[in-house]
Prior knowledge:
The chain is elongated. The chain starts with a helix and ends in a 13-residue tail after the last strand. It has helices at about 1-25, 70-75, 90-100, 130-135, and strands at about 50, 50-55, 125, 140-145, 150, 160-165. By secondary structure, it is an alpha+beta fold. It folds into two domains: about 30-75, no CATH class; about 80-165, Nuclear Transport Factor 2, Chain: A (Roll), CATH 3.10.450.
Amino acid sequence: MRNDLLRTSALALAFVVSVGLAAAQQQPPPADAQQRAPNAAAPANAAFVNGALAVPDAPANTDTVPAKFSAKNAADDALITIAYTFKTLTDDERRAIYQALKGQPAAAVNADVGTELPPAIELRPVPNEVAARVPQTKDYRYTVTNGRVLLVGTSRIVVGVFGDASASVGEGRRAP
């Protein structure tokens, strides 16, 4: 019994000493680390600065930069998932969609990206000519309203809004 007590005491003492030595070996943080602001300049040898890779020949504007450091990525975060398809359309492709579909009869609805259209609104399939010019529009339907062309997914939710160059149109983002 006395041997067990002695062995347990020795193990406990060895544990306490090893923890103490490990704590003593750790370097204290630099004095200015607690005073440095979160957005302050990073050290010169940092691989990441504000979430972006900061090495030679690294891409400048990527989707991996946190939204708090990139206005582009913050705007992309507001994009509804189904509308992400139309995010990369060029201005020419947007214009082609609008020009090809704007002449159709207008529906009496005021909708924006993310709005579910009522069943009474007639939706037409995107013509093959438009789908050939802009392949992302294949299998979508559309309606025209208030000088805008609304592209609609299978669930009747507006996923793209296209207008002429002078009109303010959505790019697949929810209205604030």
